[in-house]
Amino acid sequence: MNITLNGNRVEIEKPVTLMELLELKGIEVEKIIVEYNYDILMRDDWKITALKENDNIEVLRFVGGG
Amino acid sequence: MQDKLTIGGIELGSRLLLGTGKFPSNAIIPQVIKSSGAKVITVALRRIDFDSEDENILKHIPKDCILMPNTSGARNADEAVRIARIARAAGCGNWIKIEVISDNKYLLPDNFETIRATEILAKEGFTVLPYMSPDLMTARRLKDAGASAVMPLGAPIGTNKGLRTRELVKILIDEIDLPIIVDAGLGRPSEAAEAMELGAAAVLVNTAIATSDDPISMGEAFGLAVLAGRKAFLSGAGAVKDFAEASSPLTGFLGT
Question: H or E segment at B58?
Fold first, then answer.
């Protein structure tokens, strides 16, 4: 299965949930924001969202800015 | 005398707004917030880089501050709206600094797209503070679109060149019935004071503080300059004259 993660095409071998993908990527999940197919996905939904072909996922965080 | 700036229904304890980019270390940001007295703090939203350990800026910002995420990175109104909605969903409150830029050399804002984004986000209940090139007609349209303040640039972002747009900013201060906040370009505390003396409601400073040798001390210097400039504005400066006018009496000399 291929998805787009932060603008890059990524191949995923086995079915995973969004939460599993984030853990796989070693992300500290407390401090991030996830946009899933252009909608903001609430934290509670990460565990129950099974990724599917061509999903578009943006994982974001706040950084310094003026 | 009570002289508080109120934006979006919130009374602000300081007329200095602080950006958080470019600091040598995020860990000093709390001290800069303290020394400068700033209460409104800007942050940006970015994609996570999966290959590097970058930290969350929010943990360095005290809870009593108002977070003002910016829409930097947006090249048009739709992208700005998207960023604003994400920021609000992330629990950062409803303040948003609209920044729509498609010119990478001078980082000048796109006033047209900025008006469009302001209109959409104000309707959605955001407290919208648009960053703009100082232009009277744009400022009027931003007000009509529901902006809570208007933030004209003093000089291009990060240049530290000072209040180069002085005459145009003065027109906005005189004509627009909204807080005018000079954002971008101010490089020295004296320039922040100049903007405040002119009647700006506040200034937003980032680069000048963050890239100084001692950001904590420079933050304090800007905080003091903003206070001094505001006090001078409220005090009403004396007239400028072409010819000298003695400060001491010209009669009653010794020996006459």
Answer: none
Query: What's the whole-number mean pLDDT along residues B29-51?
Result: 93
CATH code where residue A18 lies: 3.10.20.30
- Number of domains making up chain A: 1
CB pair distance less than 8 Å for A63 and B85: no
Q: What is residue B45's three-state secondary structure?
A: strand
Q: β-strands B202-205, B16-19: how paired?
A: parallel
CATH of domain B5-235: 3.20.20.70
Q: Which of B4, B63, B97, B231 is catalytic?
A: B97
ipTM attached to this prediction: 0.86
pLDDT digit string, tens, across residues B153-168: 999 999 999 999 999 9
**A65 found inside a domain:** no
Residue A66 placed within a domain: no
Cβ-based contacts of B158 with chain A (< 8 Å): 66
Answer yes or no: B97 catalytic.
yes
Taking the Cβ of residue A9 and every Cβ of chain B, the question of whether any pair is shorter than 8 Å is answered with: no
Instruction: State the number of CA atoms in the 13 A half-sphere of B4 facing the CB.
Output: 10
Please tell me the distance from the alpha carbon of residue B166 to that of residue B44, in angstroms, as a whole number. 27
Question: What domain range includes position A32?
Answer: 2-60
Q: Residues B194-206: what's their mean pLDDT?
A: 98
